[in-house]
Amino acid sequence: MTALAQLAAPPRTVLAVEDLSMFGGDPWWLVVVKAVFCFAFLMVTVLFSIVWERKVVAWMQLRIGPNRHGPWGMLQSLADGVKLMFKEDIIVKRADKVVYVLAPIVAAIPAFMAIAVIPFGPAGNEVSIFGQRTAMQLTDLPIAMLYILAVASVGIYGIVLAGWSSGSTYPLLGGLRSCAQMISYEIAMGAAFASVFLYSGSMSTSAIVEAQADRWYVVLLPVSFVIYVITMVGETNRNPFDMPESEGDLVGGFNTEYSSIKFAMFMLAEYVNMVTVSSVAVTLFLGGWRAPWPVSTFWEGANHGWWPMLWFVLKVQLLLFFFIWLRGTLPRVRYDQLMKLGWKVLIPVSLVWLMLVATVRALRNENYDFQQIVLYVVSAVILLLLLSFVADVFRDKRDKAAAENAPEPPAFDPMAGGFPVPPLPGQTLPPVPRRRSHRERELIVSGGVNTVSDGTESDGKEAGGV
């Protein structure tokens, strides 16, 4: 009920107005500098994240981890990148060569594009770069979050095309798995975004961060945050949802037939996507570039100057550690469990939560007090639970009657096709003949009475011999 009370509570500050006038006026050289910074930020974060992941997982598994390249092994990922560049570049004979070459590029480029609308600092608090005052953000749009969704959707084509163009079965299966996984989890992700749009009144990333000046949306919209965290793990194909490249049944997945720099670009796209979705989570739910609560209360300058970039980077690294912790903790789920979670759990919960948020905001805009809002919402929830209970009762009666009137299924013969096959759901294997005890075998050998009738004769000799 605490989250509901926070939803219904009147905002203490006015929602941020979309003032995008500070964007679009930078000279061309400054735009290039900011674009290069965004690219360098992603690359450096990826290089650090790879080493950090290997170090953290080694610590979890009581191993040493990389410790050869650079101090404390910090240059291990850079050495791996150089090694992949000099490896032999192989193109399989049956591949569609044009699509085969373009697929890693299509997967990598969209991963870099989403960072363009992520704010590293307040738009109104301009900083000086080579004497030029500018905002700590490359650009912003009135529909910046829709731009992020569109760019993320394009990246999946690289994985699908890589699996199809390889001319091999297992990469194709990995690409199709990734496509189905993307569709399943992007619906719930969009519903989680919609809750933020309803509460902030904007799709601009800078305006959403400004609207969190009073309270972060992780407190106001906890269900949306949890849904987005689960979907961002599914979107990036990370453990425990790494079905497109599960080594156990796909031998590497969609990138099986790739080597050298093309393989490196797929790995780069995966880690850049991790940074991108973490940046989106920080922007939408964790206050963006704002300092954490204890710091912002006693230090007025925490959200001014270059300090906001520090808070943003620390929050992103915290979410990256969450990715690493999941990989070292949770086992991989089955593919049917993955799809069931997306379609039967996340999508219904996200839609119900979205309707609840929209209802509370609409009642609040009509100046209903908190007690009336709670009464209406609780009444609707109780009504839904009663309807669900009645439907379950009738469904159980129907299923029971159908089971009683159903004919007996034919006996299952595991050798009907000439070779052993496992039983289908609802079928059971015939009972295994009981093994003879040592005393019964002695009676049979000595000519005594045979007490076992499974495949034996009554004279003490087995049907197939003594």
Describe the structure.
The structure is a single chain. The protein is mainly alpha-helical and 466 residues long. The protein has a domain at 85-348. The chain has 16 helices and two strands. It has helices at residues 2-8, 28-60, 76-86, 97-113, 144-165, 169-200, 205-210, 217-220, 222-235, 247-250, 260-285, 293-298, 307-329, 335-365, 370-405, 438-445, and strands spanning 127-129, 132-134. A two-stranded antiparallel ribbon has the order 1-2. Helix 2 (28-60) packs across helix 11 (260-285) and helix 4 packs antiparallel against helix 5 (144-165).
Index terms:
two-stranded antiparallel ribbon, quinone binding, NADH dehydrogenase activity, cell membrane, EC 7.1.1.-, mainly alpha, disordered C terminus, 466 residues
In brief:
By secondary structure, the protein is mostly helical.
Query: If you average the pLDDT, what whole number results?
Result: 80
Determine the number of helices (DSSP H or I, runs of at least 4 residues). Answer: 16
Overall shape = globular
Order of helices and strands: HHHHEEHHHHHHHHHHHH
Estimated radius of gyration: 30 Å
**Sheet with most strands:** 2 strands, antiparallel
Numbering strands along the chain, what is their spatial order in the largest sheet? 1-2
SSE class: mainly alpha
N- and C-termini, Cα separation: 77 Å
Approximate helicity band = 55-70%
Q: How large a portion of the residues is in β-strands, by DSSP E?
A: under 5%
